[in-house]
Amino acid sequence: MTIDISQLTLEQKASLLSGRDFWSTKEIAEAGVASVVLTDGPHGIRRQAGDADHLGIHDSLPSTCFPPAVAIGSSWDRDLARTVGGAVGEEGVAFGVSVVLGPGVNIKRSPLCGRNFEYYSEDPHLSGVLGAAHVTGLQAAGPGASVKHFAVNNQETERMRVSADVDERTLREVYLPAFERVVIDAAPSTVMCSYNKINGVYASRDPWLLTDVLRGDWGFGGAVVSDWGAVSDRVDSVRAGMDLEMPGGDGSTDAQIVAAVREGRLDEALVDASVRRVLELTMLPHEATGQLDVEGHHAVARRAAAESIVLLKNDGVLPLPTGSRIAVVGAFATQPRYQGGGSSHINPTRVDVALDEIRALAHAQGSTVIAEPGFSLDADEDPAWGAAAVSAAGAADVAVVFAGLSDREESEGFDRTTLTLPDAQVELIRAVAATGTPTVVVLSNGGVVSLEGWHDEVAGIVEAWLLGQAGGGAIADVLFGVVNPSGHLAETIPLRLEDNPSWLSFPGEQGHVRYSEGIFVGYRYYSTAGVAVRYPFGHGLSYTTFGTDGMEAVVTGDDTVTVTATVSNRGEVAGKHVVQVYVATTAGPVRRPLRELRAFEKVALEPGESRQVELRMDRRAFAYWDIEQGGWVVAAGEYTVQVCADASTVLAEQTVTLVGDSLVRELTMESTVGDWFGHPVVGPALMAGLASAMTPEQALQAEQNPDGLKMVESMPMQQFLVFTNGAIPVEVLEQLLELSKTPAPVV
Length: 747
Ligand code: BGC
What we know:
The protein is α/β, with parallel strands linked by helices and 747 residues long. It is built from 22 helices and 26 strands. It has a 6-stranded mixed β-sheet, with helices on both faces.
């Protein structure tokens, strides 16, 4: 039913722009306006029946805890992201939730960010594609999504007031594109604005962000909802385009809106526009069906978890051999850490315990399992545990150590200060490996941990991230080869924390965090600067081997390319291969990263199977953000299209030439002499004018000194005139300045 907003009083309209309580909007029964529920999100439904909070403190009704974004990011699988989004959406309908708060598509600027487990990647393309797939799946099931946290919320330290100081090219190329893709490709019902400031302006009060970019540039038609408590000036935020303030308060901010309109400080048309957008949300499904597919969704969660595990290292120890004695040590084997702390915390329908799942599969394969805790996740450590674990490992054919981070070490609300695992765990890994028994380490962590100090001593490393409630089963599946691992790193594992490009400016000081590394985030920095890493972005092993042949890059337009390649499974077992396509270029006036991920595809292949894949790249794959033009530009020039195994390893490449954009920059008196002479229209005119004004001696001198222009090339025209005593008359320059505005193609 469409609501006629002209029938609503100003007070009623203002009342719709803030929540009724923690999780719902206000109803206006007499006008037929329903109340709807918005709740977390992102990897399951946190529907609180009792006390409400936005930090995951109070329990919620049981629902499926799917793998958080850190896992799905590593799957590099858009179909999987869509399936998980769809399952979350179905549960939203079961609980009568109209808007599920997620996904989070913020970029992992620093591995220390306490909330990295809720984000996909350090790469905007990967984050955007997976985020869009999640939203598409979720919204197809009924509820709306809320892509968050818009924008530049890349740390927890001071997250509610820090100013992220970022230049515009970096914003457009790194921190905004994931949101842009989700908005354009998946049309989420809502976007959640972040707590922080961007270049000194709170996101909730930023008209450039919420109106010019989001609605103007990207065509967003949905509502902007505030992060919980992010509104600092309600009237200003309405002006900026921030529609729904959450959670609800005492109505005082509604009264501020009314007063501002009455006093002529706020245009009522802006209030109406926000009201219309909020009313759209009330059209979303909001009657709880109560139908929860507990078993079916647990199976989805297990499959998604297994697809997301990254096999980092394997000296041949995996999959675990049949008929072997397996020592399983480490607290995470029995106390799974499968989700992060904070607002995304789900009360799971059940939880798979890795040790139980390993026992079940070992039994089926004629293997035996002995288990020892090795260390404790609680504060008090029992020193005898380590010794017992080491002796169990020493007597086994293979040892599997479950290590990782506990809720104490990482969560929403604070950032980490180190990448290292707790000392007791590092000691245990080293001691187990020192027994000579081949050792596999399984990691449970939301943010990257350092592998240094033990990497070389162990035979295998399984990066199991936080995998959701079915993670224990998924880990067992990968260890025994029931599932062939196919995850790839969505973030670099550095050798040292200090190597990370944000190291010197994270998490900032005195209210500001300067994004001093600019666009050189994650692998964009490591590969460009040649800084060695432990494992590059995109790395991930399999139990089979894949081949890439016949790669071809075909130019399909001025700024578009299609890549084809044949990928094959050359091993004995079925597997999934990720085709990663990067673009490398030095074209254009700005510094480009060595290579950037521009397309990818996950392909399932039976043993011996080959398949041709085709990936189309549009102009954005080649564009940079030009601050002078205030827009995307594809520079004319050469682009090397690379099919890579990871961000450091090129498998096949081809260089193509793109016509790019016809771009003529207007000249000013500050433009250099080089700019003037290089201008396609002005340059030749200037040359001709100068030549005709020269005396024969001057012409000879110019001919004998061809480098003369080089010396003054970088001199702004206004200075050149001073030094040459007005070599070019002012009227001529004025005519030429006018001429520079004439569009002409650059060849
Ligand atoms: C978080 C959001 C979350 C909201 C509601 C905030 O503190 O930043 O991600 O959706 O709380 O729980």
